[in-house]
Design goal:
two-stranded antiparallel sheet; 411 residues
């Protein structure tokens, strides 16, 4: 083990043997036995096995809270005996507790090092097979923290092929994370190779070899990350690397469609909408409408005037093109929450005060979706504004003609 663990070893005098706590690792703590045996409840000493381990755990937790890493480490060696607890539930829970506490101690202890941490991690993987994947992932992240990318990747590869135990939902999540981080490491290697390639001239004798290497790494990364897109979850940091690779190889449309599936509020979505709008395919035009609604579903985009301009213009165009069903498809899932989220009386006053142009675009959308009785639309309609007066009148006529709501049923 490391100097940190060796420091805990030392000669034991005859006087100390009877009053020391001895561990299987040869550690001795003359002072610890006193702590363990004098924890009293109702004036009685705790002497049985369960009480001893419980006391040790309390001491470890207290030392961690106080950032007393050396003391916490010494208590931990005594807590190891819980692995032999007669209570099967406590015995099964022990490896995970030991790993969580022990890894934190070794991460912060001033005399710990990578070798110590890795030795501890490897031993805990074998002791607690139920926690093998979790420990492997955390071990890999620790190695990444110390810049040891090859070792981290090797750990993840070993974990990815580990097949012991039952297939549970939590295990599936861990496997997904392991594959995601492995893909991210492969992306990092690809990115370095791509940078190397950019510095070479196409006529350079080494260009083809490096280009092939870049392609091989992109294939490996894609294999790990592309599958994540089909799994529910927030995979943004991983997917963005995949998107960058698609763009590098010229598949910009594919990259943006993947971004939309994963991060519908991303700033590139408005550019994606523009590309879809220019397409000759009708399904792309329908997706263009879906993209705009998706952007404005997010609180961070509520003041995005470009998004509202695009939606106002595209809604009118879609309705003029007799595609009412497209609008209804998007609106049906939003009609119960968008009115308060975007089109309340409060937002009408606030938006008009802060940005009249934004308020007009939102009012037009509100009128088309909610009818001329919508509070937001009515408030903006009543405002006296010299420059926007004509625009508001045009907006009123368009809402009357194209609104998807029967005027008699307006909000």
């Amino acid at each position: 083990m490391s100097d940190f663990s060796e420091e805990l070893k030392g000669p034991v005098t005859d006087d100390e043997v009877e009053t020391s706590v001895l561990t299987g690792a040869g550690m001795h703590f003359p002072w610890l036995q006193t702590y363990v045996e004098t924890v009293a409840i109702g004036g009685k000493r705790k002497k049985d096995f369960a009480q001893t381990t419980s006391a040790c755990l309390s001491f470890v937790q207290e030392a961690l809270l106080k950032h007393q890493w050396q003391q916490a480490a010494e208590y931990m060696y005594s807590y190891f005996q819980t692995l032999e607890d007669s209570d099967s539930y406590k015995r099964q829970a022990a490896p995970e507790i030991i790993w969580k506490l022990g890894s934190e101690i070794l991460f912060y202890h001033p005399k710990s090092n990578v070798e110590t941490f890795s030795t501890f991690a490897d031993r805990m993987k074998n002791i607690g097979v139920m926690n093998y994947l979790k420990i492997s992932l955390q071990h890999a992240l620790y190695l990444l923290h110390h810049g040891m990318l090859k070792d981290a990747k090797r750990n993840l590869s070993e974990a990815e092929t580990w097949r012991h135990g039952e297939n549970t939902s939590s295990r599936g999540i861990l496997i997904n994370l392991i594959q995601a981080y492995k893909g991210l490491l492969q992306y990092y290697t690809w990115s370095k190779k791509k940078m190397e390639l950019s510095k070479l001239d196409k006529d350079d004798y080494a260009y083809n070899a490096v280009a092939q290497d870049v392609f091989n790494h992109s294939w490996k990364t894609s294999a790990n990350i592309s599958a994540l897109i089909k799994i529910p979850g927030v995979w943004d940091p991983f997917v963005k690397s995949y998107v960058e690779m698609l763009e590098f190889y010229g598949d910009r449309d594919g990259a943006q469609e993947i971004l939309y599936q994963i991060v519908p509020s991303h700033k590139l979505m408005l550019e994606f909408h523009t590309l879809l709008r220019k397409s000759e395919k009708e399904e792309h035009h329908k997706l263009g409408l879906e993209v705009l609604f998706g952007v404005l579903d997010f609180a961070g985009c509520t003041k995005n005037i470009t998004a509202w301009k695009y939606l106002a213009k595209y809604l009118k165009k879609t309705l003029m093109g007799n595609h009412l069903a497209w609008v209804q498809d998007e609106w049906n899932s939003r009609k119960n929450w968008w009115p308060n989220f975007h089109f309340s009386y409060f937002w009408a006053k606030s938006d008009w005060k802060e940005d009249t142009a934004l308020a007009c675009e939102k009012a037009f959308v509100a009128g088309l979706l909610l009818g001329k009785g919508c509070r937001y639309f009515r408030y903006i309609l009543k405002q006296d504004h010299q420059i926007l007066g004509k625009k508001i009148k045009r907006m009123k006529r368009s809402v009357k003609k194209y609104s998807i709501v029967n005027p008699r049923l307006s909000y």
